[in-house]
């Protein structure tokens, strides 16, 4: 016999099958509720899926980890840190997205002098100047 859940649309199963929801994927979220512990969101592309972003996952900087800085209806991107089809839970983090973007920027724009001290850089510049 079929229950009502088997007849209804399976939003989590559909999202998993499409490959949209997987660990480290970036998704758009809309705020639907705010409390002291974090922010309740729904996924923009998957209307039936909701998640809770804990306070410490709201931002990398501790000063920005205030749920009050968000407003209901606000849309932002977050990174999927865990997706369990069995438990039907999606864990999201803005902090993980910020860290990943920073690592990507360092890898893309990091110079050969990025680990050098000011003295090393100036010493090399003076040596080049003296050679000219």
UniProtKB/TrEMBL annotation:
PROSITE patterns, per the entry: S1
InterPro entries attached to this UniProt entry: NA-bd_OB-fold, S1_domain
SUPFAM superfamilies recorded: Nucleic acid-binding proteins (SSF50249)
Transmembrane segments: none
Pfam families attached to this UniProt entry: S1
MF (Gene Ontology): nucleic acid binding
Top-rank taxon: Bacteria
S1 motif domain location: 24-95
Name recorded for this polypeptide: S1 RNA-binding domain-containing protein
